[in-house]
Amino acid sequence: NAENGPFFTRRQHPSPVAANVRATLLEDPGFGRVFTDHMATIRWTQDEGWRDAEIRPREPFLIDPAAAVLHYAQEIFEGLKAYRLSDGGVALFRPEQNARRFQASAERLAMPALPEAAFLKSIEELIEADVAWVPGGDGSLYLRPFMFAAEPFLGVRPAAEYWYVVIASPVGAYFKGGKKAVTVWLSDDYTRAAPGGTGAAKCGGNYAASLVAQAEAMKHGCDQVVFLDAAERKYVEELGGMNVFLVYEDGSLQTPPLGGTILPGVTRDAIITLAKAEGRAVREERFSFAQWKADAEAGKIRESFACGTAAVVTPIGEIKAAEGGFVIGNGGGGAVAEALRAKLVGIQRGDVPDTHGWVRRV
Ligand code: COI
Predict the structure, then answer these.
(1) Distance from Cα 308 to the centre of ligand 1, integer Å
(2) Which end of the chain is more exposed for a tag (fewer CB within 10 A), N or C?
(3) CB-defined site of ligand 1, < 6 Å
(4) Nearest-atom index, ligand 1, CA of 311
(5) From ligand 1's centre to the CA of 96, what distance in Å?
(6) How far apart are CA 275 and CA 326, in angstroms?
(7) Tens of pLDDT along 260-293?
(8) Does pTM top 0.90 for this prediction?
(9) Which N-terminal stretch is annotated as signal sequence (predicted)?
C-alpha cells in the first residue's frame, strides 16, 4: 500500500511466545501491557537523513546517558489502531492523519519530518510481521509510533540524531472493565497547555505534565482529569488524554475549538464528521465549566463524552470539582454517544459502509 516508502530490512524471529499463551493474552489484553514480537525502526542523522529502516525483534535498546531526550524531553508519539475485519482482514483507520500530525508534532519540537509514506510503510510492515497479534472481537492492535532525540549532547538545541520507532500492543478497553461511563475531576491547580505552548503537539512532555493532575483525579475517585484553559482558567479544554464533547437537548454537539492548546484528535474529527452527516449541528466553540454545570443541571446538556483512539467514545457520567460537581443525565451515558460510538466502531471494523474513505486495508 504505502508506495515509495523506504525499503525495510526484515530481521524477523519466530515468536518467543507460544501460540496458546498468545491466545490467552489476546483474550483480555487490557491496555498497553502486552507487546508484539517486533518493532520498526528508522534512524535519522543530520548528515544522512532517514536511513536504516528495519523490522526487527522488539528488545531494549542502548541509548547514551547523554541522549538529549533524557534531558530535554525532545520526544513525540502517535497512537492508532489496526482492526480485525469481519472477513478476517486487517485495516487501519485514517493512518495518514496520524502521519500528518506526527509531522506537525515534529515541527513543533524542532525534529525532522518523517515522510508520510515512511510512516505508513513502517506500520504496515510491522503489522505484517506481527499479524498473529491482531485480536479479534472487540480488541485491536494499538500502534505506537514515536521519535526521540538520541544525540549525546547537553547543549540545548535540536539534536542531530533521532530514532523513529513503532511498537505494537494488543489492547481491549482503555478504562478497566470497559466502564460504561467515567467520572472526571476538574483540576483547579494545574493546566495542560498555554497559548504558544505544545498543547497541539503529541509530545511526551504534555502527558508527563498531566500526571500529577491525573493522580489528583484518581485520589478523588475519578478516572480522568479535565483541564481548563491556562489563560483564563475558565474554559474546558480536554481531559488527560482525550477530547471532550457535549450533547445538547436539541441533539446538537459542542466541543472546544482547536487553537493550539488542544490535541487535534483523529477520533474528534471523525465524530464531528459523522455527527454532521447525521444532520446534527456541531459547534466547535469554547464553553466554560460554569456553563457545562448550569446547562447540565438545567437538563439542557443531556450527555457528555470523551473520545480518542484509546478511549474510543466513552460517556462522562459525573464531574467532580472542589467547588462542587454535577451529574450528567442519569450518570450512565446516553443514546447519542452510544450511537456515534457504534457507527465509528462499525466503520473501523468494516461492518458499516465507509463512505468517507477512512478505512485502509493492510
Ligand atoms: C490515544 O488515544 O491514542 C492516546 O494517545 C491517549 C493516551 C493513551 C496517551
Answers:
(1) 7
(2) N
(3) 79, 207, 241, 308-310
(4) 2
(5) 17
(6) 26
(7) 999 999 999 999 999 999 999 999 999 999 999 9
(8) yes
(9) none
Instruction: Say how far apart CA 22 and CA 18 lie, in whole Å.
Output: 6
Torsions phi, psi for 204 (to 5 deg): -55, -35
User: pLDDT digits over 116-155, tens only?
Assistant: 999 999 999 999 999 999 999 889 999 999 999 999 999 9
Distance 298 CA to ligand 1 centre (A): 32
**Alpha carbons 213 and 189: distance in angstroms, whole number:** 8
DSSP H/E element including 305: strand 301-308
Residue 1: how many other CB atoms lie within 10 Å = 13
In tens, the pLDDT along 145-162 reads: 999 999 999 999 999 999
Q: Could you tell me the distance, in angstroms and rounded to a whole number, from the CA of residue 79 to the centre of ligand 1?
A: 6
155 Cα–ligand 1 center, Å: 31
C-alpha cell at 197: 505552548
Is the pLDDT at 177 greater than 90? The verdict is no
Residue owning grid cell 446538556 = 301
The residue whose CA has the least distance to atom 9 of ligand 1 is: 241
Which atom in ligand 1 lies closest to the alpha carbon of residue 32? 8
- Sign of the C-alpha dihedral, residues 92, 96, 101, 106? positive
32 CA distance to ligand 1 middle (Å): 10
Are the beta carbons of 252 and 280 closer than 8 angstroms?
A: yes
Mutate which of 174, 269, 314 to test ligand 1's pocket (most atoms within 8 Å of Cβ)? 174
Tally of residues, the chain: 362
- Residue 2: pLDDT over 70: no
Q: Which of 64-68, 173-177, 226-230, 235-239 has the lowest mean pLDDT?
A: 173-177
Q: Using the structure block, give the residue that is written with the C-alpha cell 483540576.
A: 187
Which residues does 148 contact at the CB level (< 8 Å), separation at least 6?
A: 67, 69, 74, 75, 162, 163, 165
Mean pLDDT of 199-218: 96
Ligand 1 binding pocket mutation candidate from 33, 202, 242, 313 (most atoms within 8 A of CB)? 242
What separation in Å is there between the alpha carbon of 310 and the centre of ligand 1? 5
CA angle at 127 for the pair 126 and 132, rounded to the nearest 5°: 120
Closest C-alpha residue for ligand 1 atom 8: 310
